């Protein structure tokens, strides 16, 4: 389904003949609550100072506390990394053409290429009005294809934004002198006083008339950069990482020849930035996005490990201990796994898990399980991974979750482990972050 967002030059796109009275700056109680919802598009009629007050209120009205920190737990957006992708660019920047080829919906208004790149491409309709007998009457619409891309920059707490407008067609009578101003919004949104941060955004250029945009036809996109930093970190266990939370969005303001202004706000994206040293990529990621790693059962170098994980996720009794009535997490669509980084392993559960699974393999396959009859060297593979909060040391007979082990080819186990370890870093998965393992 194609989304078409219409910007009314002098009235709401819903067809009102008379624009609503603008809310006074600082008096947000008069603004419709839908306009203040950062998860949806909305149109506001008023001057620049009034629109800015509404804009800041929108960006700061999202989730707080644990709901903010745990946005990725919803698994609404999940991006997948394959072994082939791990051999390429960590960031893999999204392009305008790539963006335009992906459709978004009201339920999923943003496409995430990965945790570092987001994109929205929709039809943008700018409605034109004239005054007749004291009434504002719709005369026509200018329709553009709007593509908006966001690219987190490698090794920095900086995001680059681009907005491209390509003229599609006009409907009826339009006014090419209407000014179109493209902007990016960014705000530190954690209202807990334990956090303080800043988010600065560069100017993207002067407003352009519809006539100018038609001539350019997307050849001169507007570019912006935002720098996001946490100046005061929380006092929790992650204070050294300086995790900070931000809301970023895109807005379009149109001004007609009579000076009437209408600003359309688009759904905001949630961003987390940090200074953690044990991950790579950008220092900023789109925080509502969950990660997933894909492994192949047919791969000649890690296929045995992939097959073992698939059995654990889908038919646990094919593994050991294979407890009936229990399950393992990490399968897409079910409970995710969560990374356990060694510096936060205060109970030494990673080492404890390694010991527990080796004992389990010895119990089931004997102390000589590391060498089969064909002389093949085997290793005791475990799932969930030891470096997760769901590892074998953290489950027991009384917990609904369990673990699985199986001796597999040593090379396959080591290769899968190397892919997993590299992926944790390149996909910027911090301690406690949720993720999935997808077996193909």
Could you walk me through the main structural features you see in this protein, from its secondary elements to its overall organization?
A hairpin with a 5-residue loop joins strand 6 (135-152) and strand 7 (158-172). With 440 residues, the protein is an alpha+beta fold. The radius of gyration is 26 Å and the shape is elongated. It is 18% helix and 34% strand. The protein has 8 helices and 20 strands. Mean pLDDT is 92; it is low at 8-25. Strands 1, 4, 5, 6, 7, 9 and 11 form a 7-stranded mixed beta sheet that branches. Strands 2, 8, 10, 12, 13, 14 and 15 form a 7-stranded antiparallel beta sheet that branches.
Q: pLDDT below 50 for ≥5 consecutive residues: which ranges?
A: 8-25
| Percent helix | 10-25%
Order of helices and strands: EEHHEHHEEEEEEEHEEEEEEHEHEEHE
Q: Note the total helix count.
A: 8
Main sheet record: 7 strands, mixed
Q: Kindly provide the radius of gyration, computed on alpha-carbon positions and rounded to a whole number of angstroms.
A: 26 Å
Distance between the termini: 29 Å
User: What structural class is derived from the secondary structure elements?
Assistant: alpha+beta
Q: How many β-strand stretches? A: 20
């Amino acid at each position: 389904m194609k989304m078409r967002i219409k910007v009314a030059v002098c009235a709401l796109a819903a067809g009102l003949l008379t624009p609503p009275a603008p809310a006074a700056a600082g008096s947000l109680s008069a603004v419709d609550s839908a306009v203040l919802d950062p998860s949806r598009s909305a149109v506001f009629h008023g001057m620049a100072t009034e629109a800015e007050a509404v804009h800041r209120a929108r960006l700061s009205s999202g989730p707080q506390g644990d709901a903010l920190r745990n946005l990725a737990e919803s698994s609404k957006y999940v991006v997948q990394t394959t072994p082939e992708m791990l051999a390429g660019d960590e960031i893999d920047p999204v392009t305008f053409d790539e963006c335009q080829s992906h459709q978004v919906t009201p339920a999923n208004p943003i496409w995430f290429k990965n945790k570092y790149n987001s994109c929205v491409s929709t039809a943008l309709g700018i409605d034109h009005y004239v005054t007749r007998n004291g009434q504002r009457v719709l005369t026509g619409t200018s329709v553009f294809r709007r593509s908006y891309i966001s690219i987190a920059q490698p090794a920095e707490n900086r995001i680059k934004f681009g907005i491209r407008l390509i003229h599609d067609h006009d409907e009826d009578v339009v006014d090419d002198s209407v000014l179109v101003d493209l902007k990016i919004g960014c705000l530190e949104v954690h209202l807990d006083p334990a956090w303080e941060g800043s988010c600065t955004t560069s100017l993207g250029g002067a407003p352009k008339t519809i006539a100018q945009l038609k001539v350019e036809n997307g050849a001169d996109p507007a570019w912006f950069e935002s720098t996001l930093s946490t100046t005061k970190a929380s006092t929790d266990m992650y204070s050294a990482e300086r995790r900070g939370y931000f809301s970023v969005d895109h807005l379009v303001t149109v001004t007609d020849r009579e000076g009437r202004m209408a600003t359309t706000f688009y759904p905001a994206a949630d961003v987390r930035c940090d200074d953690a040293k044990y991950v790579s990529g950008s220092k900023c990621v789109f925080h509502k996005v969950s990660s997933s790693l894909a492994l192949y059962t047919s791969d000649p170098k890690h296929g045995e490990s992939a097959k073992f994980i698939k059995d654990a996720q889908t038919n646990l009794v094919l593994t050991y201990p294979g407890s009936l009535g229990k399950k393992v997490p990490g399968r897409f669509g079910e409970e995710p796994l969560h990374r356990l980084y060694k510096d936060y392993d205060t109970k030494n559960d990673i080492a404890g898990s390694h010991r527990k699974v080796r004992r389990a393999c010895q119990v089931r396959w004997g102390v000589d399980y590391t060498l089969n009859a064909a002389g093949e060297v085997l290793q005791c593979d475990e799932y969930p991974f030891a470096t997760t909060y769901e590892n074998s040391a953290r489950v027991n007979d009384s917990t609904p979750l369990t673990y699985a082990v199986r001796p597999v080819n040593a090379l396959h186990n080591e290769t899968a482990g190397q892919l997993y370890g590299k992926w944790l870093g390149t996909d910027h998965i911090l301690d406690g972050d949720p993720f999935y393992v997808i077996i193909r």
